[in-house]
Amino acid sequence: MVTFHVAKNRVLAMKRLIAATVALAALTGPVFAQASNESDPIIMEQKQKKKDAEAQDRQYKSTLERTRQETTAPRTDPWSNMRGTDDSKTKR
């Protein structure tokens, strides 16, 4: 009869161990499901979009800088050929 209780206790301990293992696996499953995969097409697309946006931003900044350098030239008077040669106030 003693061996029956020992066997029953072992079976009960094994059931508890299996139940705990299943519960632990069920709780940790979503953690591994959220892990990122570098070869995922969505992630690769997002990275490509980010690189394209950065390249476009660099190109915009360089164009803006070139435009600023070009505008530092002295400005000319577009109406200079419309005026007469003498602009003194006494003739008016």
Characterise this structure.
The mean pLDDT is 81. Among the domains are: 1-29; 39-69. The protein has helices spanning 2-33, 41-70. Helices cover 67% and strands 0% of the residues. It is rod-shaped. With 92 residues, it is an all-alpha fold.
Describe the structure concisely.
This protein has 92 residues and is an all-alpha fold. It has helices at residues 2-33, 41-70. The chain contains 2 helices and no strands.
Can you summarize the main beta sheet?
none
The secondary-structure class comes to: mainly alpha
Terminal residue distance:
133 Å
Radius of gyration: 40 Å
Total beta strand runs: 0
Principal-axes shape call? rod-shaped
Order of secondary-structure elements: HH
Q: Spans of 5+ residues with little confidence (pLDDT < 50)?
A: none
Rounded average pLDDT: 81
